[in-house]
Amino acid sequence: MINTLLFASAALIWGSTWLAIKFQLGATDPLVSILFRFALSSLLLFAYAFLRRKNLRYGLRDHLFLALQGMFLFGINYFLVYMAEQHLTSGLVAVVFSTMVIWNILLAALFLNKPIRAHMIAGAAAGLTGIVLIFHQEILAFTLTSSSSLAVLMSLLATLSASLGNLIAALNQRRGLPVLQTNAFGMLYSTLAMTLLALLLGKSFRPEWNFPYVGSLIYLAVFGSILVFGIYLRLLGNIGVDKAAYVLLVTPVIALLFSTLFEGYSWHLPAFVGLACILLGNLLIMKKAPVPQRKRRAWETA
Questions:
Q1: pLDDT tens-digit profile of 188-198?
Q2: DSSP letter at 26?
Q3: CA distance 130 to 101
Q4: pTM across the whole model
Q5: Of the candidates 45, 30, 20, 13, which has an alpha carbon nearest to the alpha carbon of residue 186?
Q6: Angle between helices 211-218 and 2-22 (to 10 degrees)
Q7: Are 262 and 20 in contact (CB under 8 A)?
Q8: Could you give the CA distance from residue 279 to residue 252 in angstroms, rounded to a whole number?
Q9: Residue 298 binned pLDDT confidence (cut-offs 50, 70, 90)
Q10: Of 66, 70, 107, 168, which alpha carbon lies 20 to 30 A from 293's?
Q11: CB neighbourhood size of 198 (10 A)
Q12: What's the rounded Cα separation, in Å, for the pair 49 and 73?
């Protein structure tokens, strides 16, 4: 029962964060909204680490990799997502983002020497087919001045950035860096970089003091950046990496449901088929590779 609750909570929170981002898009510049979000998240993580007496002292080389993780996972990634959601519904951006498993395969093969198996290729093909079906109108009407088409490209680049961030995070864990501290420092470095960029671009740091903006900011910082991560880690420890990863299958569906209810997203037949292709593709990619059986010797079959 507890694992079912954890799974549902993780999928519901992640699925709802895409809609919450919409409330961050207004008078406040997206760059400033992102730095507010991760400044609050990193502050809360550091406070928790300090109270629990976690180690917060690392070498210069460690901090370099922590900064890289933060820039790709919490900086470039989210900036492109926020920009894309100015022109696409939150559910559609979430659907594009679910294809991150394809980038994960390619980057793991390139940098971690992990083999690309047949079921992964089939899953990637199904996922790309689903993207084409859902966005066929935008693809056919693509021009450099088409805002929706460019938003799709930004979503794909955001997905690539997140995948690079995941790769660096995996390398950091291999080097023995704890997850909580790497996220705290990563969010901090991302916040500092975006603050510097906002200053250079002359952005205003004045937030919108209304309930939708402040409420969504707190929700994204606490629930969407800290709480859901703790829930997912506990679920991962309880049922394993392979089963916990199925949260990725449910998240885009929930995001599209929220988008349908609150943003007026209109379903059409290619969208249904495309979503099914993406879910099937993710399912194929996360499928376990068969363990090769040891050949029996002649005297073992006698």
A1: 999 999 999 99
A2: S
A3: 14
A4: 0.83
A5: 45
A6: 140
A7: no
A8: 9
A9: very low
A10: 107
A11: 17
A12: 20
For residue 151, what are its two tokens? 């938003």
Q: Mean pLDDT over residues 256-275, rounded?
A: 89
CB 26 within 8 A of CB 213: yes
Model confidence pLDDT, tens digit, residues 97-134: 887 878 878 887 888 777 888 888 888 888 888 888 88
Euclidean distance between the first and final Cα of the chain, in Å?
Answer: 47
198 neighbors 31 (Cβ within 8 angstroms): yes
Q: In the numeric block, which tokens belong to residue 236?
A: 């991962």
- Amino acid identity, position 249: L
pLDDT digits (tens, 9 = 90+) for 159-169: 999 889 888 88
Q: What distances in angstroms separate CA 99 from CA 109, 134, 176, 282, 289, one per listed residue?
A: 16, 13, 28, 8, 20
Looking up tokens 């029996």 gives 296
* Amino acid letter for position 180: L
